[in-house]
Structures are given as structure tokens and as C-alpha cells.
Amino acid sequence: MDLQLTQKCALITGSTSGIGFATAVTLAQEGANVVINGRTQTRVDQACERLRTTLPHAQVRGIAADLSTAAGVKVLLDACPEVDILVNNLGIFEPKAFEEIQDADWEQMFDVNVMSGVRLSRAYLPAMKQRNWGRIIFVSSESGINIPAEMLHYGMSKAAQLAVSRGIAEVTAGTGVTCNAVLPGPTSTEGVGDFFISLAAAQGVDLEEMHRRFFAEVRPSSLLKRFIEPSEVASLIAYLCSPLAAATNGAALRADGGLVRSMV
Ligand code: NAD
Question: If 0-12 CB within 10 Å is exposed, 13-18 middle and 19+ buried, where does residue 216 land?
Fold first, then answer.
């Protein structure tokens, strides 16, 4: 299937690794001009280089900007004032008991996971509407529906993204712009990998046993029973970015390995 993304400019936030990087690779494979973002110039340069090594003809540029603040978002907007496709992928997680989550933790989770996408969408949407074409994708999580007891503030931010995404779709009515959310399940990224390595060490078991326990005890409803590959989330994101997905707007689509027990 040709996703018809040639020459479309796609910005993917938080894309030096994980789902963001996989999305940049998939969109570049489909012919889009991609913009990679992370906090440091070194990591951004390394990610651009990795992408060029995989796809020598890829059109890629990198912008270092910390999107946890309005000032950081402005740096990105100054360097990249217009895009056809915005993938609000940036997101952080932090397991912490509810009683331990401080005001500052709640605020940081909201700023990074929600406000980065709100600020960028608010800035890019008017020109998308004027051109009568654009795509905004929020990378939320199954944790936006199944609020995890071990990180309520993360669940709150992921649920908020679903609300914002649906709300933005409402204001695209009658235009060629769409806004959708994607809900990944547990995905095998660097950050998640490091977390499980430290958890396995703390529990005195090997990594394989740690993964088995996770799907048996923490996420037993997973039908996939393994971690999702970042590319398996990226392919759903890429489809939503395509002109072929024009009829999908205001939706929350799952790439969660069947974890959420809901039919719609
Ligand atoms: P990751 O931790 O692998 O990558 C994070 C990226 O964000 C890196 O490029 C990092 O440089 C960048 N980053 C971090 N803070 C930043 C900031 N303030 N400004 C700019 N860039 C910043 O991430 P991931 O696990 O691939 O997650 C991507 C998205 O998918 C997140 O929104 C996450 O909530 C969601 N998600 C992930 C999983 C999972 O299991 N990995 C599951 C469900 C949802």
C-alpha cells in the first residue's frame, strides 16, 4: 500500500529513540521529510545519522529542544514554523506510589506529556486548516484507559491526551485536517528495557522471568503476551498520517496487544 506521504513534512517529538524514532523511520520510508526532536544536539545528531544509515535517501533534519516548557516549544517552532504532520509522541513515565507523588511530579507529568502536544497543536493547526490538509497524532497509552495503580500521574496525563485529541478533532470539522490518538501497550523501548533490567535485579530474577511475571501478574489481559516492537506502533501511526486515513478523525486507536478489554 502506498501511504502517499511523499514530500509531506512530519515532525515527531521525542524521536531520538523508542516509538518516536521508529515512527521517523517508517514515515521516511514512506517518502516523508522527517524532523527528529530530542533534548540534546548530540542525541538528535546521532538519531539523524542512524536514520540516514538505515535509509540513505531519507530527507531528515534534527532540532534539539526541551519541550517540557513553553520556551522550549518556541525554540522548536522558530526552527520549524510549518508542518503537514505533527506526531505528539513525547512522553515520560515514572512508577511511584500515589502517596509519594508530589505536586511538582504531577505538574511535570502534565507539562511534558500534555502541554507539549497542546502548545504544538495550537501553533500548527491554523496553517493546516488554511491549507485544508494536516495530521495531528497524540501518542497516548493503554494507561489512559487502564489507569496504572503504580503511576496515577502518568495515567492522568495519558487520559488527558485522549480528551485533548478528541477536542482538537472537533475543531477540524469540515476541513481536511484530522486529529487522532494512538494507544500503545507495553513496548520494547530503551527506557522500558532499562526499567525491567533494574526491576529484575531488585527481585533477583533474570530478565526472561521478569517479563513472564509482568504479563502474568501486572498486565494479564495482554493477548500478545510479549512486548510490542516500536515499529508495530509506528505502522499504525503512519497509516493515520496518510491521506488514505481521511475518514478516521477523533478516534483513539489501540496498538496494545489486545490488552484493553473493550470491543470499540
Ligand atoms: P522513550 O523514552 O524511548 O523516548 C523518549 C524520547 O523523548 C527520547 O527521544 C528523548 O530524548 C525524548 N525526550 C524526553 N524528554 C524530552 C523533552 N523534555 N523534550 C524533548 N524530548 C524529550 O519513549 P517511548 O517509550 O518510545 O514512548 C513514546 C511515547 O509512547 C510516550 O508518549 C509514551 O508515554 C508512549 N507509550 C510508551 C509505551 C512503552 O511501553 N514504551 C507504552 C504506551 C505508551
Answer: exposed
Instruction: Taking residues 94-104, report their average pLDDT.
Output: 97
CB of 231 sitting under 6 A from ligand 1 = no
Nearest to 165 by CA among 77, 69, 251: 251
Q: How confident is the model over 71-92, as pLDDT tens digits?
A: 999 999 999 999 999 999 999 9
| The predicted structure's pLDDT at residue 264 | 84
Catalytic residue among 154, 156, 228, 255: 154
Handedness of CA 102, 106, 109, 112 (dihedral sign): negative
Residue 32 has a CB neighbour count (10 Å cut-off) of 26
Residue pair 54/234 in contact by the 8 Å Cβ criterion = no
Ligand 1 geometric centre to CA of 129 (Å): 28
How would you write 130-147 as a 3-class SS string?
A: HHCCEEEEEECCHHHCCC
| Phi/psi at 180 (5° precision) | -135, 165
Judge whether 239 counts as a catalytic residue.
no
160-177, pLDDT tens digit by residue?
A: 999 999 999 999 999 999
Q: Are 210 and 200 within 8 A, CB to CB?
A: yes
Residue 247 predicted with pLDDT over 90: yes
